[in-house]
Amino acid sequence: MAKVASALGPLPDTSPLPVPDSVVELLPAIRMMCSPADGPAKIATIRNSALVQLFFLPDERAGASLPFTPDHIVYCRTAPLEAGFDGNTSRFLETFPRLLEEYAKRHGGKPRVILAPGLGMIGVDESKRSVDTCLDVFEERLKISRLSRAFGGPAFLSSRAIRFIETWEVESYRRSVSTGGAGRRVDGKVALVTGAAQGFGRGIAEGLFAEGANVVIADVNDAAGAQLAAGLNARPGRNAAAFVRADVTDPASLARLAVETVCRFGGVDLLVSNAGVLRAGSLDEMSPEMFDFVTRVNYTGYFLCVKTFAPVMRLQRRFRPGLTMDIVQVNSKSGLTGSNRNFAYAGGKFGGVGLTQSFALELVDDGIKVNAVCPGNFFEGPLWSDPEKGLFVQYLSGGKVPGAATIDDVRRFYESKVPMGRGCRPADVVRAILYLVEQEYETGQALPVTGGQVMLA
């Protein structure tokens, strides 16, 4: 074994290398061009490493051109598509459709692996988990090719064997089993939820994942966000979750979020702008600094999220005309009616409805519906029930509920205002979001989810 190890030399390095930020201007288009004309869009993922870069060299490319095993055909197709990127996004997007057409003529379908010098190795398939399997298998193909040099060079499958595997019904069935399981309400969509580590956001992320969406959990809470993603990924299914630390008040942080989201999933189909904060207080109590903080998160943060991700959605629509996507702001009943001693929060939420209506008018021609859900109070969530800084504590100490002596007094006061007798729950909000995504003829709406506490005229 020592002699074999000595002959092989060091194993190829698969440690991740950076991908250019310009990927956000390319991969959403590639995802759409590689997807069927109708039906769910595929998922695209990009990887980069020293191993991948090695096979971009002219003398090495032939070593990745053909398969070594049946799995290389079943999961990756016989050959990758080669499409170099020289830094000019416009030129790449002009030439890629021709390369795709030529590939389809030669191989009878669209590629699952794209080797793009200047970008990385791109996988495109029906689901996130099948894409990851595809790229894992293709990385093994690259390793085999590289290590085969110690044994006289690559020995690919014969053309006869390749044709047999390509048309063998058993292998086709094996792949269909591995990629099966569709049918849920947002199956295969890429949903990005801000403020998703706790409260309504966590429930929304869990609910969308249960309905088949791939979920990006964006939050400033690293521990809770990573824990949620790990828990979702432990569930069986074709979809996947990813946590990305993001601050909705910071344009640079959101730009990084866009790059990370696109690298993992290829684009965005549903943006749920949920991140928010609440600081109650009267005019005498509210400082200008606290007012600015609440407004920046709840109002400006929504604007910055839409500004960051609308271009990604537009690009997808450009390369798949007829595609519809969704932006949903998680607003509040306080965005529909005033809130005593809570003007900083209510003002930002009222403004959010105005943004929703205005974004809806601007983005309708790009196939992007923009709506808001306006939940009632989530009494079980940390916003209300946190023992140190929850609203029950704030409202009790601030005297917002006359005569209230305990937290239970405050809670009963607010429950009594709801005709249906309870607070809003994450499942209620998820149902509303799914309705807004599924319907085809509404945009610019603010949908109350309040148990009858707020009714539209």
Notable features of this structure?
2 domains, Rossmann fold, 457 residues, 7-stranded parallel sheet, L-fuculose-1-phosphate Aldolase, 4-stranded mixed sheet, 11 strands, alpha/beta
Q: What's the quick description here?
A:
This protein has helices at 2-8, 27-33, 50-54, 70-76, 89-107, 128-147, 159-167, 169-178, 199-210, 222-233, 251-265, 288-319, 343-363, 382-385, 391-397, 407-415, 426-438, and strands at residues 43-47, 81-82, 113-116, 120-125, 190-194, 214-219, 241-245, 270-273, 325-330, 368-375, 446-449. With 457 residues, it is of the alpha/beta class.
What does this structure look like?
The protein has 17 helices and eleven strands. It is α/β, with parallel strands linked by helices and 457 residues long. It has two domains: 11-178, L-fuculose-1-phosphate Aldolase (3-Layer(aba) Sandwich); 190-372, NAD(P)-binding Rossmann-like Domain (Rossmann fold, 3-Layer(aba) Sandwich). It has a seven-stranded parallel beta sheet with strand order 7-6-5-8-9-10-11, sandwiched between helices. Strands 1-4-3-2 form a four-stranded mixed beta sheet. The radius of gyration is 25 Å and the shape is elongated. The mean pLDDT is 93.
Unreliable segments of 5+ consecutive residues: none
Instruction: Tally the structural domains.
Output: 2
Strand count, sense and closure of the main sheet?
7 strands, parallel
CATH architecture name of the largest domain: 3-Layer(aba) Sandwich
Write the topology of this structure:
Elements: H1 2-8, H2 27-33, E1 43-47, H3 50-54, H4 70-76, E2 81-82, H5 89-107, E3 113-116, E4 120-125, H6 128-147, H7 159-167, H8 169-178, E5 190-194, H9 199-210, E6 214-219, H10 222-233, E7 241-245, H11 251-265, E8 270-273, H12 288-319, E9 325-330, H13 343-363, E10 368-375, H14 382-385, H15 391-397, H16 407-415, H17 426-438, E11 446-449
Parallel strand pairs: 2-3, 5-6, 5-8, 6-7, 8-9, 9-10, 10-11
Antiparallel strand pairs: 1-4, 3-4
Helix pairs in contact: 2-12, 4-6, 9-17, 11-12, 12-13, 15-16
